[in-house]
Specification:
This is (diamondback moth) hypothetical protein. This protein is α+β, with helices and mostly antiparallel strands. 45% of the residues lie in helices and 13% in strands. It has 7 helices and 6 strands, in the order αααααββββααββ.
């Protein structure tokens, strides 16, 4: 080993590297687990905030590693691999791959640095919040009170007006969680949906088959309705409007009503009822035209 290298400093750098690898593993573990039951009603928002916190930890650990390694002496000329050059001469099978793993670890660190920088810059541009609840502006918080924390009667009027607009879609309102409404929707004999509200803000959607038991937390046993649920969350975020919450709810309900022909209308792009690979009907509805598409055909 080069005598000019401080052993304690090198050990500190290796410790920082292990901490970085651990924090990155936590990010991938959180991504693989996805939404969990303990995320509650604000599942997606809490999951994204948790992911942002983990990525911030990766960024902090990466800065610590850089600061630690900056104090190590920079080798002049070609880098001396020392005794690691003899790893390829090992006769033991499980040691012959050590050199390749060493090189891959350097490449992995470089990619972590690059990807975490990209992720941090993207997440820093998005607060990951769909309301102004944590905004520093008192004026905007006051606006939240008038737009979303509305009286239950006003919410009922909006929902009942939408219910009267459709003869093949039945909407019922309940309030199992204090004053916030939970709306159950039956669309013909095609599907059922439940939408959790916070004032007039839609917080969660679950879509199931017509014969399934409806609740907020358990997914449908059918792939097609799990796909519709996924698309419904995308629609909920698309139509979200902090200044026009009633219009957002009406637009979403109009979009959901377009699924009345889920099993009868063919895809507008390929002309087939079932896609040849997924074997699913067109479970996507265009936000503007409400035309049906397979997920594979919507691009």
């Amino acid at each position: 080993m080069n005598p000019s290298i401080n052993v304690e400093q090198l050990n500190s750098a290796l410790t920082s590297l292990r901490t970085l690898r651990s924090s990155v593993s936590q990010v991938f573990e959180a991504l693989s687990n996805g939404l969990r039951a303990d995320h509650g009603e604000d599942g997606k928002e809490k999951f994204l905030l948790e992911l942002q916190e983990l990525l911030n930890n990766v960024n902090i650990n990466l800065r610590d590693l850089e600061q630690t390694t900056n104090g190590l002496p920079i080798p002049t000329g070609s880098f001396n691999l020392g005794n690691t050059t003899y790893l390829s001469q090992e006769t033991t099978q499980d040691r012959q791959a050590l050199y390749t793993q060493l090189v891959n670890s350097y490449k992995w660190t470089d990619k972590v640095h690059e990807y975490s920088s990209f992720a941090h810059s993207i997440l820093s541009q998005n607060s990951l919040r769909r309301s102004y609840a944590n905004s520093g502006s008192t004026k905007r918080r006051g606006k939240l009170q008038s737009n979303h924390n509305v009286p239950p009667g006003q919410v009922d009027n909006v929902i009942n007006t939408i219910d009267r607009s459709y003869t093949d879609m039945k909407i019922t309102i309940s309030r199992p969680y204090a004053s916030n409404a939970v709306v159950q929707i039956s669309l013909g004999h095609v599907l059922k949906a439940v939408v959790a509200f916070k004032g007039l803000l839609m917080e969660w959607v679950m879509v199931k088959g017509y014969g399934e038991t409806l609740d907020l937390w358990n997914e449908s046993r059918h792939n097609v309705f799990r796909k519709v649920t996924e698309n419904a969350h995308a629609a909920m975020l698309h139509f979200y409007s902090p200044t026009l919450p009633e219009l957002a709810v009406r637009s979403f309900m109009t979009w959901l009503h377009s699924y009345v022909n889920l099993f009868s209308e063919a895809c507008k792009r390929c002309g087939c009822h079932l896609h040849h690979t997924s074997l699913l009907p067109p479970a996507w509805r265009d936000f503007r035209t409400l035309e049906p598409f397979h997920d594979e055909c919507k691009q």
